[in-house]
Amino acid sequence: MPTKEELQQRLDQISELFASIVTHADHQSSWRCPYKNRFDQCTAQFGCRNKRKPKVQGELPVCVSDDKLDYRPAWEWPCDPIR
What we know:
The longest helix has 25 residues, at 4-28. The protein has 83 residues and is mainly alpha-helical. Residues 79-83 have low confidence and may be disordered. It is elongated. The protein is built from 2 helices and 2 strands, in the order H-E-E-H.
């Protein structure tokens, strides 16, 4: 049975791991479209000017975004209601 100190050490390690994941995700969200997967395919279920026909029929469309867009303003809270 692990001691209280050992459990705390494990919890601290897990917290550090998740903190690094969150930091990376936060950085990446400032420039990469959230609908672009790791294969540069578009997973959005709506139109997008960066969406191109898939390389192989039946696959997801190709995303040709230059990844220079900043999506953060769209996620800021509180946001203005759509008029």
